[in-house]
Structure formats: structure tokens, C-alpha cells
Amino acid sequence: MEKSIVDKPDVYKLVEAPHDQDVERIVSKLIHEKLTQKHLEMIDRYDQQTYDHCLRVCMGCIEMGCYLRLAEDELERLARAALLHDVGKCHISHDIIAKPGRYTPEERREMQAHAVESYKILLEDFPTEARIAGAHHWAQKDGYGVPPDEATRFYSDILSVVDKYDALVSKRYYKNEFSEEKTESIIREESTVDPELKERILRRFEELLKKT
After folding, report:
1. Per-residue burial over 171-182, b = 16 or more CB atoms within 10 Å of its CB, e = otherwise
2. Cβ atoms of 204 and 63 closer than 8 Å
3. What is the pLDDT of residue 104?
4. How remote is the C-alpha of 196 from its chain's centroid?
5. How far apart are CA 165 and CA 159, in angstroms?
6. What pTM does this model have?
7. CA neighbor of 145 nearest in space, from 163, 168, 166
8. CA neighbor of 63 nearest in space, from 166, 135, 141, 192
9. Which tens digit of pLDDT belongs to each residue from 167-188?
10. Short-list 93, 88, 103, CA closest to 174
């Protein structure tokens, strides 16, 4: 698991952002927690691309959480939910996860089931994080997963935007990278996250990219 810290994936230079020490500190703490490590190792064994994506999204959420002035305990819950948000994919055929190109309607339904699976897997160990991870896809145009609750919606909305941003700007099995401009356009059009929060996060991404 140490490779997570030593060999960080390129997360659009977020680790060079103003809160890089907070990112390093919180991620390092999480990967040494036995329960978090148990779930993260499942993802690592299952698929390297998914593992790297989860780590990038975790770092992005910490950066955004610091920017939004979340308290330390809030940051840790958000970061843990982000780090493990795709653990439910471990219950999906890897042939679907690694398929290049478009999914069939049936494959898409199976892929979308991972949000509920993540919720179920995390619920016993991390009930708050399970709700955040399970609900974050709800704020997308074709929303799915576990309906959000008022106590965790703010955090699942942050995760929703950061997850979508990374999924679009990164090369994935099923697509090439999108430009930052196209990514922002898609999120503005399709995300149902509170418009003010959505804009604050997107503006922060723009600020960070200008510094790289």
C-alpha cells in the first residue's frame, strides 16, 4: 500500500496545490487504518486503473474540502468515502470494467449497480462514508445509487463533482481524456449539484490548473 503515497498518480498536479501537506497527511493516515486498508486492498487487487482513480478523487476531495474550510473530522470522512467510493466495482465482472468503447444497456445497468454495492460493502465499517459514497452518483443527469440524505448530501455533492471531473479528464478503458473546457461544460450541463457549490469547485480546479 505504500506505493499510494510514494508513487502518486498524476492528479492534475493537485499535490502541488496549496493544501498538498493536508492531502499527504490525510491520505497517509487513511491507508494505515486497518479497516480502510482492507477495502482499499480489494480495489488494488481488482483493477489498477480504478485504484488510481480512487486515489486521485480522494486527493481532489481533500483539496476541495480544505478550500471549502471543512473541519478535520469532516475532511477525513469525505476523504475516506472518496478513497473507497468505487469498492462496489469489485463485485462487477472485470470484463465490463475494462471494456473499451460504449456499454450495452445491460452492461450499463450492471456498471451503475456498483454505487449501491459500495454502500452495502462500507455500511458496517463506515456508515457515514457509505451514505456519501452510495449517493454521489445521484447528483448526475442519469442519477443512480442510494438517494442522498440531508446529513451527508453536501459531502456526496463534493465527491460527485470531483469524481466526474477526474473521470472525464483522465484516460479510461472506455474513453480518451477530455479537455478541461469540455469537462467543465459537461459538469455544468449534467450535474444536479447545488449550482453555487458546483461553480466554486470548478473555479478551484481552474485556479489549480493555472498554477501548473
Report:
1. ebeeeeebebee
2. yes
3. 94
4. 20
5. 10
6. 0.90
7. 163
8. 166
9. 999 999 989 999 999 999 999 9
10. 103
Domain 3-210 belongs to what topology? Hypothetical protein af1432 (1.10.3210)
134 contacts 145 by C-beta, under 8 angstroms: yes
Task: Report whether 93 contacts 106 (CB < 8 A).
Answer: no
Higher pLDDT, 197 or 9: 197
Residue at 159: amino acid letter: L
Res 8 pLDDT > 70: no
| C-alpha triplet 147, 149, 152: angle, nearest 5° | 115
Roughly how many angstroms between the first and final C-alpha of the chain, as a whole number? 27
Return the residue matching grid coordinates 471549502. Answer: 68
Contacts of 187 (CB under 8 A, 6+ apart): 161, 164, 165, 168, 198, 202
Q: Which amino acid is at 200?
A: R
Name the one residue in this structure whose C-alpha cell is 478523487: 57
Q: Cell 442519469 appears where?
A: 142
For residue 205, what is its C-alpha cell?
A: 480546479
